[in-house]
Design brief:
Distance between the termini: 43 Å
Helix content: 10-25%
Cofactor: heme b
Radius of gyration: 21 Å
InterPro entries: Dimeric_a/b-barrel (IPR011008), Dyp_peroxidase (IPR006314)
Keywords: Iron, Metal-binding, Oxidoreductase, Peroxidase
GO molecular function, one term: metal ion binding
Largest sheet: 4 strands, antiparallel
Structural class: alpha+beta
Order of helices and strands: HEHEHHHHEHEHEHHHHEEHEEEH
GO cellular component, one term: cytosol
Amino acid sequence: MCAPTDVTLELDDIQRGVLSPRPTPYAATYLVFRIDDRSQGRELMRRASAAATSAADSSSPLGDTWVSVAVTCWGLEALGVPRASLDTFAWEFRQGMAARARALRDEGASSPQHWESPLGTPDVHVVITAIAPDAPRLEAAIDRARPAYDRLPGVTAIWRQDCYALPTGKEHFGYLDGVSHPAVEGSGIPGSNEWEVPLKSGEFVLGYPDEIGGVRTPQPTVLGHNGSYAVFRKLHQNVAEFRRYLRDNSADAQDEELIAAKIMGRWRSGAPLALAPEHDAPALGADPHRRNTFLYEQDDPAGFITPGGCHIRRANPRDASVAGEVRLHRMIRRGAVYGPPLPEGAMDDDGVDRGLMFAFIGAHLGRQFEFVQSEWMNDAVFFGAGDTKDPVVGAADGRTGYTIPRRPLRRRLAPLPRFVVTRGGEYCFLPSLSALRWLGDLHD
């Protein structure tokens, strides 16, 4: 891996949505547009360059509020970006998420044929995201962005998803979310794990050296430099089924919470098993400076405290040597809840759609998002557990159980149903602010 260097990121040209952790609490909106007229699509880009928030804007009058603008490969084509330029983008991006369904294990109920229209189709061209600490400031951000797309008859709004923080500050399965965030060299934003060395900026922003010294930049440079790739996925959560699984595999309420912790790797308060192995520690879970500062290799290599198959250890094995070079697969992840909560204690589904809008930010779709999704979430060869799946978000088929390492005998739980179903998504490109202007100034 590369040695530490003094990297200066051009923060005033990078969209803030690339590097800033989501505020807590939060409200968010995803708006999807189709470009029907090329010239008006370019006008949208010109206007969007003024509406998007830069990473240098950390003192906005609206606080932790920003607007991000992303474009799909279909969108770049609709804007008239030459094929020679499109061919320099990541091939996964050029294919689109729906075409990558098999690699992502989006099969069965999660297959693109069941996705929410128009997600995963060539109609998805531009995704505008607004995020803020609360609903009033979110509406103010949307109002600021509205002139970018308003009164453009050649640009059609085709989908919207509103998200918000639950009153508990948790996601629908009951776990504190948004706990982990990597430090990016040159960003000035500290990571959530004080023991993690900041990652090279090229792992997340195009045009800078990455962990192996490479520099990736789609061409022309004015288009690719300071950009990033983004993955958006709408994930439906089967909350009632998750609750029934915990109840049916536990002896009592205390045991149920222990199983929930062993499945996730954290207690529902956010306290990690690595630091609170026997009982929940809500004060620890609420402390952003302590709840994510831990490693595995020295104190728990065999996973007797934090199971190797649990969600957080699969998603980020940290210093686990069995996972290879973890830093090459490190990701920026963000989640935003949508839909009303299932009433407390309810064990039957009420038919209401609820779940998480998942977002990935990075410079390497293949070895970051797709690798983690296919090799760590839906396979377990890297830690010797065959083809077992992540117990929370994996593509479970109802045939394989979950194992909790324990002395003298391991504990085996019943076969896992699929708790999370993909409702749709897309691979996007987050252009720099100067690239948005360049897209606006394109000529045939």
